[in-house]
Amino acid sequence: MSATTENKPQNKPQSKPRAKRAAAPKAAAGKKTKAQPAAQKQAAPAVFTGFRVDRDEFAYAVAWTARSLPSRPSVPVLAGIRLDLADGQLRLSAFDYEVSSEATIDAAFDGAAQLLLPGQVLNEIVRALPAERIDVTVNGTKLVMVCGAARFTLLTMPVEDYPTLPELPPTVGRVSGAVFAAEAARTVIAAGCDDALPMLAGAHLDFNGETITMAATDRYRLAVDELAWRPQAPDCAATVVVPAKTLAAAAKAFAAVDEVEISLSVDVTHGGGLVGLSGGGRRTTIRLLGLEFPKYRSLLPDSFAGHADLPAGPFVEAVKRIGLVAERGTPVRLRFDGDQVTIEAGTGDEAQGVESLAVKWSGEPMTIAFNRGFLLDGVGASGAATVRLKMNDEVSPAVVVGVTEDGQQAPGYEHLVMPIRLAS
Asked: Model's pTM, two decimal places?
């Protein structure tokens, strides 16, 4: 009997059920999930703790700014120099409501700050420091300055009380710094210093096309000078009166600058205004005098009866020697006759001095007397090796001018001197 195979169901091992993954939530149709921005940390602003600066540059900037410090400040803060530190530059400024000065130099520091320091003390300290780098730290109201082995501590002043400096007026032209300084210096020597006549303490500046004419007078002498400049507009025309000594000092400070920008604003309604000078990282503003200057052109004679060409150096030395026997204010007498001038001082029982000098005289014999200081100022200011003294008579104004090598009158500068009437 054959065996019969019986199909029995086979028992298969059952697999363990797999854990179902959590389905990611589906974004709703039509909506985008917003990316969560990473938290961004904002950098804290740099904290100012001090600055580092070159000693020579700092000393020069402080000295320049200190020019505007008043000798007797009306309010205490005007005795300070303001320091503004921002964008890698240190700006120093001073202001007395009449004149402002500002200088900018490079410095190393973090952050920004405004400080006010005692101006004269700062100037004296920095000027005396050794030629090394200056490190300055500030902690509250104390400023510590270290330069080499030297260390100084200064107390700051309330900078929030310091007045705002005037802005530079619009630029009207440019001029050589050296030329402007020289012309201003030899003009303002004739300016007055009488408080009862404030208009005579000013220098008259006439801007006309490509020429600036300067004039100053104290009633006993008059200096007039012309210089070339480059105006912004060819038809530039303006007339102002500037404090004479202040103008000369400011111009002298810009003498080393190749080109100085002149800025000007005139307040026609109320009088006054501002003149500004800038160049070489420095600037200054000067308040104008709202006063009428004397009409000086009519004082200059149109013609002369005679003139003498004098060697400037020997003539100055001779007048100084003869002046040794003259008391202050005593005139020197000049007697022109032929080809010589006789210089005399002293009369009667007083000490006397006499010296003769060869000259080129054109005219009738003449004796004329001058205040020797005024006469020497005019000869020296001409800047010429030979000067020409032009005269009409013993009581009329005389004029000193320079003479060129070919014997012609030098253009530009004229110095009028009033003679002193001699007792008959």
From this structure: 0.82
